[in-house]
Structures are given as structure tokens and as C-alpha cells.
Write a structure and sequence with these properties.
Two copies of one chain form a homodimer.
Chain A (H helix, E strand, L loop, with lengths): L15 H12 L5 H8 L3 H13 L3 E7 L8 E9 L3 H9 L4 E8 L4 E7 L2 H12 L5 E15 L7
Antiparallel strand pairs in A: 2-4, 2-5, 3-4
Helix pairs in contact in A: 1-2, 2-3
The first copy, chain A, binds a DNA duplex (30 and 30 nucleotides) through helix 2 and helix 3.
Chain lengths: ~160, ~160
DNA sequence: ACAGCCGCTACTGATTTCGAAGCATATTTC
DNA sequence: GAAATATGCTTCGAAATCAGTAGCGGCTGT
């Protein structure tokens, strides 16, 4: 899980070489170290050591990302939540739910935004009424059902 | 880019074995085919062939995912957009912007939800006023600045 | 029954990965 | 300023993995 303790604004920024390595892996997470090395001007072992450090430090992780629709999760939605009380506590409760893929504390007319991935409308209704709205401190919710996913990218590492 | 043509509700669902393979790769995108094979009861070559097909079909992709904060993108936000006219056209315009990581057409009080990843507040203001609000058909926007990311997962492939 | 297709296994050589050792450049310490 | 320590890189050989392909059942449709 990335950003779990997001208040660690530790390292100022990354080496240009490390950024180049990340860019390579954003294109293909299984690219070989040797090939990456050739692209960024480093030996195979050096790339390997850097990748190890980057993943250990939690800067990057290499994972399979799937299209939920293709896996039988036909209903996705964003839930805007208004909270009375400590928003972090409520966010933690939401985070525990497996159908919730994404939770963020936000400023604006919602205190929390939560992304839901579930099988169908029934599962969504069930989740909302039986679980989310039952959480202590949730005063109101607003649901934005996804009609069509237009863009989703993970390569903001560059620019 | 996943879900670009999301209306292809083609395959009903996936083989249990393929799901198991995906789960393995969601844990570690660089796990070896042999190891995966041992876990799901298949030969190394069979796993390799399946992974190839899954990625070719766009069901899954193996990529490096980064923590934006660690890479100098200190400001993230969700933008709710209200549109007059064809929402798809507006969504396409938004998708073209590099700072926009995520665009979805939604039902509810917003027509489009767009996630922004940018360097700082200045970049966010600039983007909103100079680019997003200038798009033909955007009638109003609401910004939800991210205060803290509590959860982000990519392994909804199981359950 | 047969041909064609599909997915799996088995096997090969080429490539990659892994760990360790060595080396050069900074940084620290006294 | 010199010795000690740390860091990041390269090189290298052994072990593992990857990629391509041939072969082999099991299905499907005719």
C-alpha cells in the first residue's frame, strides 16, 4: 500500500538516473536490468541495486494492474463522504473494507473521497447502506457511479 | 492505459487459474514464472503463455507504480466537473492534459471526475484556470484538494 | 472418424539474475 | 592532513530464468 504514512516528506527529490529507471519500468515492469542499464547508461548490477532501494524505500512498487471490468467488477463508484468528528478515524474504517480501493482525506465539500470497486449494483447498495453509512461519524454520503473510464495512468514519474 | 475503450464487456470472466496468476503478480510484478507456476499448479511455460495473453488482451499490465509525493508532486486533487454538452468530448480534452492522471465519466452531481497530480499549488491553480476551465463545455468545477492518502490498492483481482 | 484448434508439458540454448569482491570517490573522525 | 568509513559503481562466475519450439492429449465441429 502506497502512501500509507504520507506525511513523510523526507527526500527532496530523486536522482535523474533513478527517474529514468522508473520511467523504463513504468513502460514495462518486467524489462530486464541489462536493458534498462543500456537505456540509462549504467551497469546491470547498478540498476538492480537502485531498483532494490527504490522499492525498499517505498518510492516505487512493481505490480500487475488490472482492468476491473474485465475481472467481473462491473460497478465502480466514487463516494464523497461528509464526516462529523475525526475524519482520520472514519477513513481508517473505510480503508478496512475490501471493496474500497482508494481512500483520501480531502478539503472541500467532502471530507473523504473513497473509490469503490464491486461486482454489481446490489453489492454497491449493500456496501453503502450496511457498511459505509453505519460507520460512526459518517453524516452523509454522495455517490458518483462510474459510467466510463476514460483515462488511467501511472506514469507521472516523468515530465 | 487501461480501460480506454471500456465498453468492451467481452469476456464474461476469467479462469480461476488466470485469476490466481494475476494475484501472484499483484503481490510482486517481477515474480518468476516458475515460482508462479508452483503456486498455481502449472508449468513455467504455461504461466508465461497465459501472462502474455492477459497482457496482450489488456486485462492486466505490469508496471511500476510510484508515490507521487516522493517524486516531487506535492499537490494532488480531485476535480468534479459539470458539463454542458457532450461529456465525452470534454473528458477527451481533459485526458490530453499530462497533469490529469485519471478521468471518469460519472453519474451524480458531477459529470466528470478528474484526478490531478502536479508539482504545487501554483501548478494546480494554473491548470484549473488556464486549461480546465477554458475547455469548451465546462460549466463549473469543484476542487477537492488531497490532504492525506490513506489507502491505495491495485489488487481487486481477487476476493 | 478426422481435421483443426487449443492449452499444456518438455526441452534447448540464450539471457538474465544474484551474490560477492574489488575499486574509486566522498565524508567523517581524530 | 591522514586514516577510517561509507557509498555507489563495475566486473565476474554460477545458478536461475526466459524465450522459442516441438510434441501431445483433449475438444469441437463437420
Amino acid at each position: 500500500m502506497i502512501g500509507d504514512v504520507s506525511n513523510k516528506r523526507t527526500t527532496p527529490s530523486l536522482d535523474a538516473t533513478s527517474k529514468a529507471i522508473i520511467e523504463q519500468l513504468q513502460l514495462d515492469g518486467r524489462r530486464s536490468y541489462a536493458e534498462i542499464g543500456k537505456a540509462v547508461g549504467l551497469s546491470e548490477a547498478a540498476v538492480r541495486q537502485r531498483v532494490q532501494k527504490l522499492t525498499d524505500a517505498g518510492v516505487m512498487q512493481i505490480v500487475a494492474v488490472t482492468d476491473p471490468m474485465r475481472l467481473g467488477f462491473n460497478r465502480q463508484a466514487m463516494i464523497g463522504v461528509r464526516v462529523s468528528g475525526d475524519t482520520r478515524v472514519v477513513a481508517d474504517r473505510l480503508s478496512e473494507m475490501p471493496e474500497v480501493a482508494y481512500v483520501v482525506l480531502s478539503a472541500g465539500s467532502f471530507d473523504i473521497l473513497a473509490e469503490i470497486v464491486c461486482e454489481d449494483d446490489d453489492a454497491l447498495i449493500e456496501l453503502l447502506n450496511q457498511k459505509i453509512r453505519c460507520v460512526e461519524g459518517v453524516s452523509s454520503t454522495e455517490t458518483f457511479v462510474y459510467l466510463q473510464l476514460k483515462k488511467q495512468k501511472y506514469d507521472w514519474g516523468t515530465r
